[in-house]
Amino acid sequence: MLVRGLLVFVCAVALDALWALYIRRSAQGQAVQAATYATVLLALGAFNTLSFLDDNLMLVPAGAGAWLGTFLTVRREHRQEHAGGTDRERAEAVARLLRETAEHPTPIG
Fold it and tell me: CA-to-CA distance for 16 and 108, rounded, in angstroms?
């Protein structure tokens, strides 16, 4: 039972991580990646669903895994997205640099 519970937990972590990625890729219009995630989601979801049918206690590790999978994935995606600032912030920084360079040209020679 402990091994099965651990398997359900790990599967739920993976499922919710993949759900977060699937939703994100779908929203970004990345059809091939989203479709690939959907296929894996179906297989993992079937395994976890079958685990609940004969043992309701498997909902405990599944719920914990679902929470952890979503939390870690959303946190990682958010950090990656904001590591260098938003696209708008980067564009404003480039525009500011170009403006400052034009106002104070560096002498050559």
Answer: 57
pLDDT in tens, 66-81: 999 999 999 998 888 7
25 φ, ψ to 5°? -65, -35
Count of other CB atoms within 10 angstroms of residue 6: 12
Prediction pTM value: 0.68
Q: Are 62 and 48 in contact (CB under 8 A)?
A: yes
Report the C-alpha gap between 73 and 65 in whole angstroms: 12
The answer on pLDDT for 90 being more than 90 is: no
Residue 109 above 60 pLDDT?
no
Under DSSP, the state recorded for 83 is T
